[in-house]
Amino acid sequence: MTIDPVTLQILANHCAAATESMAHTLVRTAHSTFVKETEDFTTGLATVDGKTFASPFDLGATWFVGLDYEVAIKMIDTYEEGDLCLTNDPYSGFVCTHTPDIHLWQPIFHQGEVICFAVGHVHNTDVGGAVPASLSRANTEIFQEGIRIPPRKLYKRGVLDQELLDLMLTNVRVPEQNWGDLKAQIAAMRTGARKVGEMIDRFGLETFRSGMTELLDHAEKQARRLIDQIPDGDYFFADYMDEDSVDGHPCRLAVNMIVKGDEIEFDFSQSDPQVTASLNIPTGGNQRHVLLMIPLIYVLYTMDNNIFLNSGLIRSSRSIIPPGSIVNPLFPAAVGMRSLGVMRLMSCVFGAFAQALPDLIPCAPGDGGPLLNVRTTDISTGRKIMANLDPITGGAGGTAFRDGTDGSGASFGFLKNTPVEINEAEVPVKILKYGLERDSGGAGKWRGGNGTMLEFQTRNRDRSHFTPWGAKGGGCW
Fold this sequence. Notes:
Helix content is 29%, strand content 21%. Helix 1 runs antiparallel to helix 5 (175-203), helix 5 (175-203) crosses helix 6 and helix 7 (290-303) packs across helix 8. The chain is globular, with a radius of gyration of 23 Å. The protein has helices spanning 5-29, 33-38, 70-74, 162-170, 175-203, 205-227, 290-303, 338-356, 420-426; strands at 41-46, 52-54, 84-87, 101-110, 113-123, 152-156, 159-160, 233-241, 251-260, 263-267, 317-320, 371-377, 384-391, 429-436, 452-458. The protein is of the alpha+beta class. The protein is built from 9 helices and 15 strands. It folds into 2 domains: 5-222, no CATH class; 362-477, no CATH class.
């Protein structure tokens, strides 16, 4: 059936509101500060073949609009009511992009038939591995980056697989934190299922079922309309990460963006081969993998912020990603720090778009938002603590008509800052200074935004109260 435009817009609003309800459930019940304050998570609704057709507008990680669950979903043979599935393995289905991201999907049934899926992920502060927080540029293979769970049923017909849960929690450093965040995710999935049931009651099954397809088709039409406004041509841009490994060499990412009519091809063939460090971007050869398409979605949304945020936006484009390259690494390449690789990939694509749309696209933002991880013990309670204090972000790049936004991290700006009071309450750390670094945005008529700075002090487990002794009049600093 064909849905009239007014009903389709109303349905789109309801679907987005459903995913926002999922996100609110997750934020309000999450255990870790990084999830409930920083909001490194996603929620969404996906079709039976795993295409995301609804996402929140302003909650969670905006990188993952259009995430494709299809391969992971099909790795489960059958679905029954009460099932809920999990994976965090970057090489099983390529829905997960590094091991700390645990993805869930729940089939939503109506009269015994799977109608769609509730989907989403959270970034866990730690999933085991060689280092606390599981992320290190020094890791050289995926086996060092924590426990990996391929797609499995966490719940089977409503019954928790306790053995699978125990296996996962045994291999992480602060299991109660992971379990707390996982329960919040589960609650978010159930919220999504309830909201879909309400939409089916309101719109009817056939309208909802057809609406999923039409939401994707409409987003594709919106994307093609916008791309058709970009001048045809080849736009090349390259940028570098400082090191391909610790004390290593610069690492290059490069794109040749070919705009032709209402389609775009992103050719990454001139990017470096995969590296031994964990900067690789795990796409599994998917030419429309969301990590490759983040900058396209951002540009389209900049051109028209009324577009539908779903995977239909990326149908109009494709990528060339040679196997064994940094944008398509082969197993068992480490991928934990893929966020830095993605940030530089985005810089390249934005650089290409800036040539095509010089009055619209801003200059490059500052740093890619390193995460400050703390592993310690609260000496007053003996409780082990594993926490992300804050993303430390540079400002957004300057534009053709104004300064860049201060402290936003630009395309990394979806990560919220954690209030100083929360960090000091939950982690044995004292924040001495937190704010914007004045005049750090560079030179120009329209400057980049100022970056953030964080100065802190931690309490040592010893020599804090009884300080080291000096001699001949010397003392402790």
